[in-house]
Amino acid sequence: MVRGRWRTAGSALVRVLLVWAASTLTMLALAGILPDFRLQSDDGDSITQIGLTAAWAAGAFGMLSALVWPVLVRALLLVPALVLGLLVFFLNGSLLLIALSLIPDGRGEVAPETAVVVAAVMSAVASATSTALAVRDDDAYRRRLYRLADRRRRRQGRADPARGAEAPPGLLMLQLDGLGYEELRRACGSGLMPTVAALLDGSHRARSWRTDWSSQTGASQLGILHGSNFDVPAFRWYEKDTGEVMVCNRPTSAAELQRRAIGRTGDGGLLTLDGASRGNLFSGGADQLALVLSVSARRGRANRSRAGYFAYFSDPANAVRTAVSFVSEAAREIGQSVRARIRGDRPRVSRGGLYPLIRAFATVVERDVVVAAVIGDMLAGRTAVYADLVAYDEVAHHSGPRGRDTDRVLRRLDRSLALIARVAEHAPRRYRIVLLSDHGQSPGETFLGRYGLSLKDLVRAGCGLPVPRRAGRTRSGAEARAAVLAALHRPVEEGEEAHPGPGSDPVVLPSGNLGLISFPDIPGRASRARVERAHPALLATLANHPGVGFLLVDGVVMGRDGRVARLDVPGEAEELLAPFGPGAAEAVRRTDAFPHVADVMVNSAYDPRTGTVHAFEEQIGSHGGLGGEQGHPFLMWPTDLSDPGEELAGAEAVHAVLRRWLREPDGPQVPVDEPLGEPVGEPVEETAPGDANNGSFPSTGAPARDEIR
């Protein structure tokens, strides 16, 4: 045992010396290349003296990075996350200036702007060297992971699951935001995602599930994590009783939706027992949080959501690598956008303004922080972890769900999954890895691009109201934008849109290819007759527009050419909505029972031959309503878990499956009592105990889509 400890200490010392040597050589090379950086006195020094000076400077910089950097990041934790990422270069350069000032006889000198470059290169080389040495020595890598896990457990007062009886396996749930089932099959078959393909060839299976009518992250993730997405009709909607516009990616709205779901179910969520929530809109009841939107509106110590930044940025090499990747990704997006414009790609949406930074945040910063947090959760041996990786969804909105831009994102996500799977092999307990998505993406030209006017303009025209000569663009509702604004401590979509003023003008809100129209001057939900009396031409104008698929008005579905179907008459709605796929009528019927359903719900046209829809937002890859792959995400599970069943209809059904997997033999033990919830369309007070699928629309008996084995 003593011999083994000496061998371990010797190996660690050798790695430190090798990293030090690599850093010294890097510093010598930079001193020879950069004119404003020198490592010798004014009178000149011998090669030996210059080498010793470089070694001294590299050692001092390494010590400062190891000792001062974590304290510095902890002190700056209240700085907005995106700002911290941009400050990394300057903070690292400051440490180099301090290190050079410690060299005897003043032999080290560098210009401040050059110090930023030197420090960035030094950190990157040290990180790459250290990683390469650990990868080559697998035993050392495994021992390091166990030491990290044991250190975390001691600091948190956790028991070591590796001691005594073998710990039951944990459940790691990774959400690939916006990746549809068919796109997953294509990515695996074409070699874009070799890690996922290898899992499917061996230990895992995958199948599709069907979303609710509101096929977007807010409704899906609330149902998956909290077991109820009742009364979430869309991504954004107007509530007449409060005069507020609820937006799923607004922190205050997310907190309220989570509170309502907990009130309906009487349960904290899927992650209440030793759980961690990473990069999600909602907490799921977890105590360990990072980048969780529903708690990001809190101030002070009550907000633990941003603590994940410290765990990641406390390593200066991580900080530099992420900052460099952030700048590279923003530049890549600008280049891709310019090339798409030069080629005349169609369809195309605007990708200027802040979007390059938003994309870089989603595909680099958020991905890196979430992956690091998940790795930390596994090393700490937590029981249940749910993490959302939003990169694909964000890029698909602006570049389309399939193409070179999204293919590149899928490759990177697969590499992140490979890293997580590798660390899982060294975790103190075995982990069952479940991959899933919350919705898919349907391609298509925007409603504005195809027809030259927005949905709001069409509604105003149908109501006899003035329409601006120039059609206004509708802001995209992508989740990553809200994450960036929350990180910057800026409000998300506040102002006039959040609080519509009194008057007779309708409130028109887009949610992908689903649009919601509310009349603030009509108390309660407006009947079809009431709408037609107030605005005689509106419903006919909407229903007969070629870009509109159907309308829902107070229990009645309206289609083109005067077709009408009552939801309470069996078979009528099923026939009218048949082009939108199995379960469409039940999805609409369930939404019709929501207390806050809009006066008029508008679903865009859908072409079954091409799978295209027309988003009412500025998105050429969209989700939010019915039509195409947006309503068919995937669920992928290890074969040692039970089969999820023939058909999964609605996010609440996925929640029930995940809860069952948490309770299965030899798996994590969670409370066996099912939460209370309301039946479809019933008031909250009338609950049905023991119903694990409360509020989800029932199965239609349609055959399941292909399963990947």
Automatic annotation (TrEMBL):
The chain crosses the membrane at residues 12-34, 46-69, 76-103. The keyword Transcription regulation does not apply. Residues 663-709 are annotated as: Disordered. Residues 670-690 have a biased composition (Low complexity). Keywords: Membrane, Transmembrane, Transmembrane helix. The keyword Hydrolase does not apply. This is Membrane protein. It comes from Streptomyces spororaveus.
